[in-house]
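User: My collaborator sent over this chain with a note saying "see what the structure looks like." That's all I know about it. Can you take a look?
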Amino acid sequence: MTLEEGRRVRLAEDLGIGEAFAGEPGAAVGFLALGAGIEGTVERVDGELPESHGVREYQRLKALFEDYGHTMPAGSRERLEAEIAELEPEWTAHRERGKRVTVRVRWDNGLVLDGAHQDVLTLLCGGRRGVGPRPTGVSPRGSRAGASCPACRRR
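Assistant: Without extra context I'll predict from the sequence alone. Here is the result:
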């Protein structure tokens, strides 16, 4: 998933924000959360999240094997190959997923979530508010047989 400024997203899971207070100071009256399904627009892409320890270790061990594997004793080389094979699924998942980023999202209800990991967001149909491509069959006003485009919410 590629998140860019202006793209429409949906929150994929509930996010707990914190305790809600009212009345006398320090009186907690509940817990505030953003519910899954809320939609908004990416205002800014902040940066890439660091790679996991397993991904970094796979890269390190693979480079070691490629550079020095041919000079290692058979037992050491086999142990290194086993460690690389153990980390292979995590490396494959990382490559398929691509770089992970954090973003600032302005939800349709006016709330803003800053530093959100892309893992908790779902990209909508690819439409952007007022710019960019629309899904096939969606008119410039966003309608498809009377239904509004889920990405741009226009009829």
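A starting point for your reply to your collaborator: The two ends are 26 Å apart (CA to CA).
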